[in-house]
Amino acid sequence: MFVLKSDYGTAGDQQQAVDKLVEQIESGQERCVLLGVTGSGKTFAMANIIKKIQRPTLILSHNKTLARQLWQEMSDLFPENAVEYFVSYYDYYQPEAYIPGRDLFIDKELQMNERIEQERFSTVASLVSRPDVIAVGSVSIIYGLNPPEVFEQNHLRLCIGEESDPQNIVHDLVGLQYRRTKGDLTKGDVRLRGEILDIWMPSRDDPLRIRFNWEGIEKIQVCEAVSWEVLDEIEEAWIHPREFYMTDEERFNDALRDIEDEMDERIRYYDSKSMELESHRIEQRTKFDLEMLSEVGSCKGVENYSLHFDGREKGQRAYCLLDFFSRNASKFHGGKSNYLVIMDESHVSLPQVGGMFGGDYSRKKNLIDHGFRLPSAYDNRPLKIKEFQELIPQMLYVSATPGERELRHLAEITNQAVPEGLLHVSSGGGAIPSEIKKSKEKRTMQQVLSEIDGIVKMEIRPTGLLDPKIEVRPTEGQVQDLLGMINEKIKLNQRILVTVLTIKFAEEISEYFQRMGVKAHYLHSEIDTLERTEIIKALRIGHIDVIVGINLLREGLDIPEVSLVAIFDADKQGFLRNERALLQTIGRASRNEEGAVILYADTISPAMEAAIEQTISRRSRQNKHNLANNITPKTIKKSIPKMGLEIEDLMAGVAGKGEKGGRKLVGKIPKKGINALTNKFDLGVGAWSSSNSLVDNISQPNWIDEKINNFDDSKNEELEKLIKKLKKEMKQAAERLDFERAATIRDRIYQMKNATDSNLEP
Fold it and tell me: Do 672 and 601 fall within a single domain?
């Protein structure tokens, strides 16, 4: 089952927290709260909980970057288990919308990430076939999927010795929506050549080769995608459908009739209201979609007809990933409730889940009211917060600053009196609106926490690090004052984070620091996700000394090199300067033994006072623990990243399998051939290649620095072959006018040639 592998054990107050939470979970408590300060090892505590309770677990995060970080850490800790990644597969998504005031229709635009879609497939496939699943997901888990029973039933099992005809297997695979091809094989294809059947499932990096003899299936082989070298041989293969959404022919035809009936009903409605334009619009659009569905089996925006294809009743929720966890628990763990959901950074994640339905409904309403969509489009929706909470049997809220919803929810399910300071909050984990307005008399988070029993706390860090020192300074001359502090920190090879309130101010401050000779960069919402990740990497490496940001420097950022956090306008009341926001921002300096925070303010706001008081109180307890146990605080050590390291794959959930291997989709790593050579030189291909092209998957130009000393002369021939292949790819890139790619390949060929030449020198 779940096997935790780590070179270290629990420390600080991790063990007591794990024991308390396991006790609560095993006693059947529906909701638990873990208050873990920044740097206390919340992820490791989660892993130890999973190890003890031995249940499939879903870990929720509020963005892809943090989800990817959690996935990698869990992959390290559970290398033998199915650690999966389930986030939105859209790199860019603009939903269709209509703005009545401007009579403007905005068509749907999207860019899909095939790699993430593959990972989603892998998650679903593991849940229906394996008992040991840990999935890291985002809010995308509340969107619709096929029922798990349909996914499980629509599959093909092949085993050695089975008397099967290859043509019949191909026919079955086409029924699972696989494409038959006679040429090159890509994901979702099937190819039959004589007695050899090749199948490439969308969830895998390694295609399957089925060999037949006169008696049936002779061998089932896992192969390398480029060379088709055999990586492993297995006794049985479980072939899942090519698409997430499956429906039989009868259900499909029924759906078309239902859509047509709904269209006729909607036309009659518009006609009764003398809405000729809307009537004409819905008729033309729906008829076009029906024709496309009849001819090719799909249409643009087909998800808006999911109610009919699923056979659901109006208003009934769609199936989602939580149903797969319930199915997994029922199948392997003795009951549908025997799984756990952990919501990381719950004070952000829970409101995010709660806000999805409202935004989706508002957008759909405009489309439906004005004849762009049928009313059934309402039922292509995310879960309502009430549905979400009712579906989850047990959930652990994890945060350094638990939100009001989580705290009230804990009080409710443990039959405690709800503190007065939480009576205005939606009950049921945000599912039931409160009738009481928020009191003008504000209560601090610390006061509320003291009134609720059962909150598990982790405040003592394994490293002995203390909460940072806090200093309040006036706003007059704040920029020049901070510049002096920055220069002092730079001399010590330390990094600085600066938070401000506006994008304009962030850019102006960073530009000023640059003019003063400081390597600074701004970070805000107008910078795309990939670039943000590279900027943070650059800070850690030392290419940048200072990052100036707004609210992107809070939850989940792990930057131990940061020893100073400066907060401008700390006394300005609002979302970015409330108690929780200040505590989260202060926490960014708690991973360094010299951590310090400067609050620039002219007054002490209630939020500042509460955050300072809580930080000082914790620092005192932490210091007392260190003195009693003779602990010297040490800065957290974390490997320095390499710039440009498979950044697209990093965000897609692909790069970095963890130092201990992590989850791989292949059985074995080949010992010879091109693939071995590329693995030897860290070219980034093999188990996690994101395409069939070697060039597309080369990771780093500086691989040679680490690997050249171990170069094997016997592999010169293979290296020459690889260089020849790269030259071909370089020419093809130039022909496509992709000169940047061509130049990159040229430089890497040059490095490889130099490596060979230098190695051959006497």
Answer: no
Q: Are residues 688 and 592 in the same domain?
A: no
Question: Which has more confidence, 749 or 571?
Answer: 571
Q: Which of 110, 73, 117 is nearest to 92 (CA)?
A: 110
- Selection from 298-307, 330-339, 710-719 with the highest mean pLDDT: 330-339
How far, in Å, CA of 75 to CA of 60, rounded?
A: 15
- CA–CA distance, 259 with 376 (Å, rounded to integer): 9
Of 239, 256, 289, which one is at a domain's C-terminal end?
Answer: 239
What value does the mean pLDDT take over residues 686-693? 33
What strands, in cross-sheet order, belong to the sheet with 189-193? 179-180, 189-193, 196-199, 208-213, 216-223, 230-234
Single pTM value for the model: 0.77
| Per-residue confidence (pLDDT) for residue 249, from 0 to 100 | 79
Distance of CA 513 to the CA centre of its chain: 34
How many residues can be counted in the chain?
Answer: 762
Structure tokens at 10: 């629990």
Are 59 and 162 in a shared domain? no
| Among 457, 488, 506, residue at a domain's last position | 457
The alpha carbon of 654 is separated from its chain's Cα centroid by a whole number of angstroms, namely: 11
How do strand 133-137 and strand 57-60 relate by DSSP bridges?
parallel
pLDDT digits (tens, 9 = 90+) for 482-497: 999 999 999 999 999 9
Two structure tokens written together for 50:
């999973």
Mean pLDDT of the residues in the chain:
83
CB 156 within 8 A of CB 173: yes
In a domain, 574, yes or no: yes
Residue 526's pLDDT is: 64
User: Is 266 inside any structural domain?
Assistant: no
Residues 473 and 443 both lie in one domain: no
Residue position matching structure tokens 């920055």: 486
Burial class from Cβ neighbours inside 10 Å (0-12, 13-18, 19+) for residue 563 reads buried
Residues 484 and 541 in one domain: yes
pLDDT of residue 694: 32
Question: What integer pLDDT is reported at residue 529 of this predicted model?
Answer: 58
- The C-alpha atoms of residue 710 and residue 692 are separated, in whole angstroms, by 27
556 band by pLDDT with thresholds 50, 70 and 90:
low
Indicate whether 511 and 532 sit together in one domain: yes
Q: Which residues pair with 342 in a beta bridge?
A: 59, 396
**Which one-letter amino acid corresponds to residue 82?**
A
Which of 9-23, 138-152, 561-575, 597-611 is least confident? 138-152
Whole domain around residue 512: which residue ranges? 469-629
13, 328, 432, 456, 533 from 36: Cα distances, Å: 10, 30, 27, 8, 25
The CATH number of whichever domain residue 563 belongs to comes to 3.40.50.300
Q: What percent of the chain lies above the pLDDT cut of 70?
A: 83
Q: Note whether residue 61 is domain-resident.
A: yes
CATH number at 208 reads 3.30.2060.10
* Contact by Cβ (8 Å): 340, 32: no
Considering the domain architecture, whether residues 573 and 618 belong to the same structural domain is answered as yes
| Single-letter code of the amino acid located at 171 | H
User: Tokens standing for 294?
Assistant: 């009849």
* In a shared domain, residues 141 and 194: no
Asked, for residue 311, whether it belongs to a domain, the answer is no
Tally of domains within the chain:
4
Query: Which 8-state DSSP code applies to residue 403?
Result: -
| Type of residue numbered 734 | A
Mean pLDDT within 248-262: 90
Mean pLDDT is highest, among 187-201, 638-652, 713-727, for 187-201
